[in-house]
Amino acid sequence: MNAPADSADVRRGNLALVLRYLDAHGPCARTEVAVGTGLVHATVTALVAELIDRGLVHEAGSVPTGGRGRPRRLLGLVPERVVILAAQVSLESVHVMAADFQGHVLHRESAPHHAPYGDPRALAAVIGCVVRSAEAAVREVAPHAHLAQLAVAMAGPVVGTSQLVAAAIDFGWRSTDLRALVTAELPLLDCPVDVVNDANMAALAEYHALEAAGVEHPDTVAYIKADTGVGGGLLVNGRVHSGSHGMAGEIGHLPIALDGPDCRCGTQGCLATYIGPEPLIHAAGLDHVAESEGGEAALAELDRRLRAGEPDAVAALGAAGHALGAAVLGVSGVTDAGEIILGGYLATWSSWLRPGLDARLAGRRALAPATQPTITYGVLGGEATLRGAFQTCRDALLDDPTGVPALPQAPVTVPSP
């Protein structure tokens, strides 16, 4: 009774195997695909034919064999066949990026959301509006592309297959089905909608960006970022490890002081209360800028003052560096991470954070230097979350190409007698 399902699963897995090989090694010939995947040539021929029917692969020319026989026909991917939408929610805005299968950006758009604290429906409405606008723009430049997926990256732990946002503390939400709210705003969007954790997406993107730049990662890598808020991620062998409840890597709410400031999460002394945007803005004396122009403008002013060497700004980052060091000690002690990547403004402002960070780590480094993590810095800046969300959707498509429908067949015309 299970044979048809098993057969479908095997075929789906083999399609993924061929598509991933072409993604990594193409353009190449069918013979090379067979050797590289271990599949027999006849099976490769049938699988390639299906991928061509779905518009994901095309004949990309031919090359001489260098001897007798016909030239080898090369196969390559068709980047424009698929479009992926990635959305990111920040404290003040919704950002959307549309990119083709190879990551070429087709459209970007941002809009302020002005969502009232504690009201996820208002935010979902803005997400829906920006996504509809982005989809319309994509249809102008790529009318025949298949819209494969929308990923919405949200601050807060995202739980299991239900994708419930367990809590979005900076937005005043408790357990919220954001996916259902966004889907209801997009009744005409003919693609799956997923909600993902923003810090996990950034962690994944920075991991691969550093890898592409030549960084060799250890088995276990922790990521800490600060921008919209303070978050993090844990990667084991290059994959996000989310734990039993989606909470692994929620470093922003790691308590680093028993009697520290009250945190919205219900406890005291969390890392976010020391290095989050609001505490840093306050410590630098920029509350008036945040009140009149918004948090993003206040952070931009903090950046200007840091580079000008203004004492209050420098002191604020120095104290934040000490707090960050305490968190690094806690994270490395629990996870034994061999590398900790700092992202968001923790990377941008590393020059001002590093003295406090190093001072806090000095004792442990002197005691057991061989067991201490390497500190690296993200390179993607504000791009990290959207790029990670895009990559997650792309990986899902590579794992299951059957989500892309076959191209419509051209009508056959019968000549008149």
Q: What would you note in describing this structure?
A:
The protein has 417 residues and is an alpha/beta fold. 44% of the residues lie in helices and 20% in strands. It is built from 14 helices and 15 strands. A 5-stranded mixed beta sheet has the order 6-5-4-7-10, sandwiched between helices. It has a 5-stranded mixed beta sheet with strand order 13-12-11-14-15, sandwiched between helices. Strand 12 and strand 13 form a beta hairpin. Helix 11 packs across helix 13. The longest helix is centred in the last third of the chain and has 25 residues. The chain is globular, with a radius of gyration of 24 Å. The relative contact order is 0.11. The mean pLDDT is 91.
Question: What are the key terms here?
Answer:
single chain, 417 residues, alpha/beta, five-stranded mixed β-sheet, 14 helices, globular
